[in-house]
Design goal:
globular, 9 helices, alpha/beta, 7-stranded mixed β-sheet, 14% strand
């Protein structure tokens, strides 16, 4: 006999929808990558070919759009079929990706510093630039700051340190800076700023933070990583050891 709190229900066989099927047969693991290598790209392409109607896949590609070359994003977009191509996400991603082709001809915008003034992000007198995107509300970002301070105190004179906050609340940003006392260049920008798109494109920022980028003196990205770093990882990153 079944327990008293168990009720047997008889119903027709249930069939899940196509979006649910696509979701359960795609999953997050294929998008958990540091580099969009050819094997990863091939897996994503095959998934989109299999589920060209999947909003989940479109959303994940959109979230990681700056990890892929614009040509590759175009290739992904061409694989989607049906009503999904009329969705807001699809149209916005298409429009954003078109701008990426001309991004190299666009100068890097100046950003607001702690004094409330606009100034250049990168100083050309340095050979390399370490740029860290963070926010006052981001736990891992705040946890990483002591390590950044330690690395800053030991850094080579040819390396420039820069932090860029994506805080929407400037007061929260200033309060965090007062608490953390980071002695290098500090800037702020958020998604409401018209220059945010340019920053996204130039630094290949997808949104997840802390996001760390190493650039050479020609603004070419040498390496990038997302998440909290260990001392060894950050040291290898700064020295560009792959």
């Amino acid at each position: 006999m079944p327990p008293k709190d168990v009720i047997f229900v008889y119903s027709p066989k249930l069939k899940i929808g196509e979006q649910t099927t696509a979701f359960f047969n795609s999953g997050d693991p294929i998008f958990n990558f540091d580099d969009a290598t050819p094997p990863i790209i091939n897996i994503i392409e095959n998934k989109v070919k299999q589920y060209p109607f999947s909003y989940y896949l479109l959303d994940k590609i959109n979230e990681n759009k700056n990890s892929f070359a614009p040509e590759q994003v175009d290739k992904f977009l061409k694989l989607f079929k049906g009503e999904i191509t009329q969705s807001t996400t699809f149209k916005n991603l298409s429009a954003y990706n078109k701008k990426r082709y001309t991004e190299k001809n666009t100068s890097l915008p100046s950003l607001e510093n702690i004094s409330g003034e606009k100034s250049a992000i990168l100083d050309s007198k340095y050979k390399k630039h370490l740029v860290v995107f963070w926010a006052s509300w981001c736990g891992p970002c705040r946890e990483e700051i002591p390590l950044l301070k330690k690395m800053y105190s030991k850094k080579d004179e040819s390396l420039e340190f820069i932090s860029i906050s994506i805080d929407e609340d400037k007061n929260a940003w200033k309060k965090a800076l007062n608490e953390e006392k980071m002695d290098w260049k500090q800037f702020i920008i958020n998604g409401k700023d018209p220059n945010y798109e340019k920053i996204q494109m130039h630094f290949r920022l997808n949104g997840a933070i802390p996001y760390t980028v190493l650039l050479d003196n020609n603004s070419k990205i040498l390496r990038s990583t997302v998440g909290l770093s260990s001392e060894k990882d950050l040291l290898d990153f700064i020295n560009d050891k792959k």
